[in-house]
Structures are given as C-alpha cells and as structure tokens.
Amino acid sequence: MARPLIPRRLRARPALRRPRRGLALVALVGLLAGGLLGTVATEAPARAAGRDVRILMQAPGSLDPAAESDLASAAVDAQLFESLTAVDASLTVRPALAASWDVLDGGRRVVFHLRPGLAFSDGSPLRAADVVASWRRVVAAGHASPLASLLEDVEGVADRLAGRTVDDASLGFRAVDDGTVEVRLRRPASDFPAIAASPTLAVVPAAVGRDPSVIEPGSHFVGSGGYIVTAATSTELTLSANGHYWAGTPAIGTVHLVTDLGGRAVLQAYEDGTVDYAPLAATDAAWIAYDRTLGPDLRSVDTLSVDYYGFDTRSAPFSDARIRRAFAMAVDWHRLVAFAGADVARPATSMVPPGIPGRSDTDFGPRFDPAGARDLLAQAGYPNGQGFPHVTLVTSGYGYDEGIVAQLKANLGLDIGYEVMAGDQYFTRLASDPPAFWALSWVADYPGPDDFLGLLLGSGERNDYGRWSSSEFDAAIAAAGSATDPAAVEAAFDRAQAIVERDAPVIPVSYGTGWAIARHGLLGAAENGLGILRLAGLAWAGG
C-alpha cells in the first residue's frame, strides 16, 4: 500500500486509500495455496510461457514477522513464513501448518495438530517447538512485537507485556509433543484459530535468534512459506518457490515483487507488461470499469476496515456519555461519507465492516438528530453550547474532519478546534496522551467481530485509546467468545454493538473499497479484504 509505514491494523489516513488500513486500497489480498484458487480468467496471459509473475507491492519495512508493524511488511512476510491457519477468499479459516484444531473448555483452550512431515525451506523439520519459539519472540520481554496484542488473550501474555514476568513457563502456549501445540486462554476466545492466521504469528526457524541472516534475502534464506527471497534490489524482490512447502511447490516458480516503478504510472506499467497485478486508486478504477480493454481486468473488494472517531472518556467533557451521544447525533455522517465518493467509502452501520463472519445486518450507526443532540447537550449542562470547554479534534488528516467541525458549530453552537499531526507523532500521542477528540482507521488482522470490538473497546485493551470501560460490554464480548452456536455468537456481539451505540465511546463512520488490476489468465488473484495476496495460490491458465 502506498502510504507511510504505520501499524497494519491501524491507519491514520483513510482518504489515501489498509494503512492498519478515503480508501483506495493499495493492499494486496488473496487466497490460500493448495486448491483454494479463486475466480478463473479464461484468456491466456502474455507472460504464461515465462512461468513468472510480476506483482506491484510496497517495499516491506521488515522481513521478520515478529518485527513487522505495517501492511507492506505483512503482505511480503506472509509469502515467506506460514502460520498455523490461513483465511480463504470467503473469510473461512482453513488449515495451514495445522491440519486441524480443537476448541475446548468453553473456548478457553485450543489445541492445534500440525501436519505430519512439515519442513522449513532448507529441509529441516518444522515442529511444535518452532511454533512456540516463534510466538515467544512476538512477546519477548523488553522488545515485544508491535502487534503482540494479538496474543494478549493467552494466559501470561498480558503480564509479560506489562513487564511483570519474564518466565517463559508462565506463557499459556506450549508444545505438547512434536506435532501438537496447546494454547490456554485467560478468557473465552473461540476465534483464536482465526487469530493464529496473522502473519505476525508465522513460524520462523529457531536459528533466527542466533543468526538473523537466515531471514535476510539471499542464498541462505530459510522460511516456512510458499516462497523464499533469493535476491533484492532497491526496486524489486525476487522470490523463488519453496520445494518443501506443505501444500506442494507453488505453480509459479519465480515471483518478482516490484516495489518501485521509477515514477511511471501504475496503468502504464501494467499496459507495457512491467507488472501483472497492481493495486489501483479509486480514481483510476472509476473510469477503468468502463474501458473495453482494461475493464475485464479490474478487481474490487470491500476492505475489512472501519474509519471511526473517538473520545477521551476519562476526562470532561467526554466522560459524560450524553455529550458523546450529542456529538454523534449532531453530524450527518452519511452525508459526509457521500461527499467522499461512493467509490472511495461507504457509510458505516457499526464498528464491524460487512463480510466479517458473525456480523449481523442490524444498523448500529450514528443517527442524525440535531434537535435530540441539543437536548442532550442541555441535559449535560451546556444549553445552546454555553459554557462548553474548548476542545480540539486531532487527527492525522481525514477528509471528514472539516465537515465535522462545521456541523458541530452549526447544530450545537460549538467552536471545536482542529489540528493535524503527522502519522508517527499521532500514534505516539494516542498511546501516551490521547486528544479529547480523535480519529483512526482499523483493518482486520483476522475475520472476527472481536477484532473490531473487544480489541478496540475492551476494558484495559491497549488499543482502547479513549480509555473507555464498560463491564456490560466486556460481559457481552466474553459471552460471544464462549459461545459455539453461530446465532448465540451473533446475538452477543449485537449486544456489545448496542452498548457502543448507546454510550458512544466511538463513532463508526465509513467502510472502504479496494481496487486492483490483474492480467487475464492469472488464476487465484481473488481478494479477501485482509490485505494479503497468497502468492502460492497463483497460477497461469494453461500453465
């Protein structure tokens, strides 16, 4: 994705579009290897005879799954290192390194059973102990992964991340034997098999702790994914198929990840054959859809992301839920999103975007009611906005910001300040001293409602930047985690969403749409909205 390196799930500039992903998605998304290919194009590609493929991707910031924090790195790392599970184009969790798993004890224990005969790319055996060692790196004392919160539901991890313990034995994951990994959870989390699909939790060779060069580009690279990195330049990464991959050697032997077009336009590079797959901006997609030559190559997908505004609920004035609700009701959010363009974003009806399994179609979005908003403001002691303290909306630059400030003035009589901060500074500010009124985007690391609810709003969660706490909400999230019946899971998450709508700690605003162009005959280039194109699932028609 063409944007600053910021956390994969967090994204600060929705209008530039994941990136952690308005929303012209430059992320690359796709399928699993091994028989899970997507839409099949029928025309033979010009490059079929060469058996290689050229994919436009942003240069990764790191090839170490435990160190990566941006979508660009995750998109590349996912090709080089495999996780226990993976997610297909229908957002179904599928076996990867793990052939199967059992969810036990009401969702508090998950046991993964590895495939027999697993190996790293150099032929050395891949065992349960390698999974455990890789996850320990993610929560390593003093230098945990930026996305270590993925494992916070595991027993002992919260204490490790808080610095209260350095004892590996206290961590709730262990190798029962060479082929079995047991995970003990501090609260019900039956969606943990989906979490395990994250590239951050991929398996790396044990030698990485002693010799980091084993995961650096070159002839000694050792991975567990469909490809290894054999060469790297300032404009391209060359990947070669891993003959020891669990799903078999990938169909395409060589993949060129083009990271720099030298100033050329994406469509120019596509038309002259420099790339076979490329992300597109929504502005390009709008006309390509009607182009007789390029139109059939256009791909679109609803990105699993939400843009939302939030409040510092610890301090006045937003410690009062009536004021938060007044802000939510005083702005015509749907109209603001419409001005951004239907090809860029869609109005949000909840914190959970469409396509996430377990999401209902109930509308929990903000209701535009200026009169009701003024009544709430008066009930809170600020009739017609009189005496309301000065607050400032601080974001990293959203297309909705100025419209929000204007409508709060027009409908509530409030003069709200507005400040834009650079991305890195903004995230530092959120973590240390959140503004009274702020905005963020969140992109799914795994396809589950809890990734947008529990992780963002649960009491004490690291990503709850508004410091909101509700025992009622936490109970609903726990009920969803322990339920096994899909209807019960959906009902519990709906209860949680209704609480968010009522208390308004955050205001969901929009969902995004992503676009890409893929050459005819390139099979498997179907998108799933998570930001990862599984290269091992690609093949050329007739090849």
Would you give an account of this structure?
The chain has 543 residues and is of the alpha+beta class. Helix content is 23%, strand content 20%. It contains 14 helices and 22 strands. The strands form 5 sheets. Strands 1, 2, 13, 14, 15, 16, 17, 18, 19 and 20 form a 10-stranded mixed β-sheet that branches. The chain has a 4-stranded mixed β-sheet with strand order 3-12-11-10, with no helix packed on it. A hairpin with a 3-residue loop joins strand 10 (227-232) and strand 11. Helix 7 (321-330) packs antiparallel against helix 9 (370-379) and helix 13 (471-482) packs antiparallel against helix 14.
Considering the chains and any ligands shown, give keywords for the structure.
4-stranded mixed sheet; globular; disordered N terminus; alpha+beta
Layout of SSEs?
Blueprint: E1 10-11, E2 24-25, E3 52-56, H1 71-80, E4 85-87, E5 93-95, E6 98-104, E7 109-114, H2 128-138, H3 157-161, E8 173-177, E9 180-184, H4 192-195, E10 227-232, E11 236-241, E12 254-258, H5 266-271, E13 277-280, H6 282-288, E14 298-302, E15 305-311, H7 321-330, H8 333-340, E16 345-347, H9 370-379, E17 392-395, H10 401-412, E18 417-420, H11 423-432, E19 437-443, H12 454-457, H13 471-482, H14 486-503, E20 506-518, E21 522-523, E22 539-540
Parallel strand pairs: 2-20, 3-12, 17-18, 17-19
Antiparallel strand pairs: 1-19, 4-5, 6-7, 7-9, 8-9, 10-11, 11-12, 13-20, 14-20, 15-19, 15-20, 16-20, 21-22
